[in-house]
Write a structure and sequence with these properties.
binds adenosine-5'-diphosphate, Rossmann fold, binds magnesium ion, alpha/beta, 9 helices
Length: 246
């Protein structure tokens, strides 16, 4: 459903992505792991064109685009089918929880207030926030903020959910409630790409693990292949260091 080929990207003189190939099937839950600074966030951002690769191609179902030639129609179509959850919660401070989730439905999808409200209520129920509809972000915990962000992303009914270290900025005791919600999203059958340092979680929810190193996909396989039979010393060392840190 999603195929990225030979994606290259530099910030100034620094080459960050060195020719990434990644192919994702509908319903896949792919966790992307790898050392900090290796281009994981940048790769997710290439998919919805938040950053512009210098070369490479993307195919998303029938949409095809060569990054060398900007195609606004293709970019728009891909954006409509993806939703991203960021490390630093994608919620607006001046809107209530309910308004945050209704917002993209009304503003981007041009749904009526009534329809938007109905969808938002459903999504907020799934993430356990039905009691917080009228709260403002300043009144919420990090876990509740991130669950609002996930409800907001899911409300647009994307084909692919992109999660960028969704639990990294949470206090440890709030991580589990967010992982539970991500697990529900993944088991609902929606295609997920998840950048995470939660190795055990990645192992449990993913059908594939991609190890990125120095701007390249350095290993790609089932959780068993990646975690139990690491194919390189780099990967083995990375897994060991994650194990020690977390
Ligand atoms: N907007 C930017 N401008 C310049 N350099 C950037 C920018 N965003 C990221 N980088 C650099 O690109 C590299 C990859 O970043 P990133 O994709 O965030 O890595 P990761 O998510 O794997 O930690 C890092 O060296 C980072 O400092
Ligand atoms: Mg990152």
């Amino acid at each position: 459903m999603l195929e990225l080929k030979n994606i290259k990207l530099s910030y100034g003189n620094t080459q960050v992505l060195n020719g990434v190939d990644l192919s994702v099937k509908r319903g896949d839950v792919v966790s992307i792991i790898g050392p900090s600074g290796t281009g994981k966030t940048t790769l997710l951002k290439c998919i919805n064109y938040l950053v512009k690769p210098t070369s490479g191609t993307i195919a998303f179902d029938t949409i095809r685009m060569d990054y060398a030639k900007v195609d606004k129609g293709a970019i728009q179509s891909i954006r409509c089918r993806t939703a991203m959850v960021f490390q630093q919660f994608n919620v607006f401070k001046n809107m209530t929880v309910l308004q945050n989730v209704m917002d993209p439905l009304v503003v981007v999808q041009r749904k009526s207030e009534q329809e938007a409200r109905q969808i938002a209520l459903q999504e907020l129920e799934k993430v356990g926030l039905s009691a917080k509809l009228d709260s403002y972000p300043s009144q919420l915990s990090g876990g509740q903020l991130q669950r609002t962000g996930i409800a907001r992303a899911m409300a647009v009914r994307p084909d692919v959910m992109l999660f960028d270290e969704p639990t990294s900025s949470l206090d440890p005791e709030l991580v589990a409630e967010v992982l539970k919600v991500i697990q529900d999203v993944a088991s609902s059958g929606i295609t997920c790409l998840l950048v995470t340092h939660e190795m055990q979680f990645a192992k449990n929810i993913s059908n594939r693990i991609v190890f990125m190193d120095q701007g390249l996909v350095a290993a790609d396989g089932s959780p068993a292949e990646i975690f139990e039979k690491p194919s390189s010393l780099r990967l083995a060392q990375f897994l060991k260091s994650e194990h020690t840190q977390h």
